[in-house]
What we know:
By secondary structure, this protein is α+β, with helices and mostly antiparallel strands. The chain has 23 helices and 13 strands. Strands 5, 6, 7, 8, 9, 10, 11, 12 and 13 form a nine-stranded antiparallel β-sheet that branches. The chain has a four-stranded mixed β-sheet with strand order 2-1-3-4, sandwiched between helices. α6 (117-129) packs antiparallel against α19. It starts with a helix and ends with a strand. The relative contact order is 0.09. Keywords: Membrane, Transmembrane, Transmembrane helix.
Amino acid sequence: MEVLHRIAEEFEKRKDDLLVFALLLGFGFFINRGVELKGLYMDDLYLWSCYGEQSFREFVFPMGGTRFRFVFYLAAWLELFFLGNHVTWMVPFNIVLNSIIAWSLYRIFVKVSSGRKFVSLALAAAYLLSRMSYYQIGQFYGLMESLGLWAAVGLLYGVYVYVNEKRASAYFWANGLYFLASFIHERYMVLLPVLLLGLVFGRWAGIREKRSLEWNAGSPEEEEVRRDAGRSRSRASRSGSPRAGRSGGPGPGRKPGASSSGVSGWLLLAVTAATAVLIQVIRLFTIGTLSPAGTGGTDVADTFKISDAIAHAWEQAAFVFGRNSGPDYLCIEPFAKAPSDIRFLILASNAVLGLAVLIFLIGMIRDRGRVLAHGRNLVLFLAFIALCIGSSSVTIRVEMRWVYVVYAAALLVLAYMTSLMGPAGFLAILYAALIFPAETYYREHWSNLYLWPDQMKYNSLAEETVEKYGDDIFDKQVYIIRDTYEISEFTAETFLKVYDRDGKGKNTELRFIDSDFDLPEITDDMVILGEDPEANGFQDVTEFVKTRRFNLAYGSYDDGWIDEKARIVFENGDHDGLVLRCYYPGKITGDQICRIRLNGKQMPDLVFTDNNMEYEIPAAPHQTISLEFSCNFYVKDAKERRGEDRLSMIVSMEEK
């Protein structure tokens, strides 16, 4: 009974948070309905292949490559260990993870907004709703972006807590998250100045407080100041606002210039320096260089241009305010091409943000005793945003998935501003309401993005193979007619292996043919797929090919014999014509005539004047050819009869 009582008490304490998480989780699944991941390709498939072929150490701690992201690789190994061959579970996993991140952001928003729960919930929902989440939700590699974002924002919040509450533990956590983030994705190494800036601001606030205490020590007003501070703390506590000691300085009774636990600032600096050095030493030891790799196999040192970096930075800033720029395959749709009502909503949301900033600045000026504290926090937030933008601007292009962390930080800034906006904090909820239709519109056009068409193709490939045939697919050979999709050799060899649970599948390699006529016969252990470019997918044409072969071709046999009435169907190669070589083994009287139709068109009769005759057929390259024969003769005294009609002659074809 005691245990049940404690569980009930704990549930009562946390029921609001649990309700918020349930709402965010349900919202995450609602807005991402229809997103599917059934077939892996490119980076996702390569990562899976490494998991399937390498040991744990080789997978998590790769040596000598261009990247060393052991924290991400460990998380990916654990995900694959639990999900196994269930590729379709990856999207639900991503949705749950992003919902947990949104819930974490909600709790941070509540803290920095002085307890505004409805505002925080609206902004957490705005985070989930963002069009920038396409990669986090729709790709296995989205795990990397989600974890990196989570660690980076956690780092920022840890530094914020240290600056405002002087809790050394928060600063240690921030350093730990910096280490983890750097080995989730190396671009987060750029956040080192945030740690140093937080240390400077934390020490500065402590020094200012020390001077303030020394100035007021022994003065008649000191007791009144302390009483006012106590009353302010009491009011803040009742209203859900942060305590004065947590916002402005270390608070009465705390040693100025030190953390709540008495940790020296020099020790904190040493921890940060040691963390930064350790990261670089590990990188140098594992990949042999300190220079980060760029996008698409490039190197930052080789492709960096200041003019391009500035342009990319502006693009990312515009993305945060809903103004897409760049080619469609990177931004979904540029702002200028969007429907007028969508542009209006985006501009209206920008106007709301502008008004919110104005009201916040007025509130900040009125809060004279804490102007510097608010200024420090703003500089801290903006430095984080600037560094994240900068780290994503030095490569060859801007992808929206890199801006997602900047957007999350911008939402944190908006939540913080509402702490000084009074009733006008409702503007944050209005902002979330305005962007809902716009973000929904862009989500509906995710198919414009560079990865979406290919993902649809491989989803379709999975549907037409493993989803349709199950494990029986490994007893069949899969053929794909043509290859305009340019499937790589690695993909052809690896795609089906993902679903081979015991690794004993006999036929896991995809094979390509120019035409089904490349196959002499269609057997039950074959699956033939045709490309469907209009739908970015594949079609299982096995039964169609079987039926066509049966209906179109008759009276003809593999050894060249044809009956009195016969049809031969095939696809011409890359030549302009064919020569039929016909052999009749009987006595030639001049009365042996064969009528020939080419694709339904009557051709000149073939009149035998010799046992061996040649007959030219005009044919365009890569054209399906249907030849119908109607002969008035047959092989007399033949010992074999294969069909309803009698054997007539032997036909072979050669290029003209």
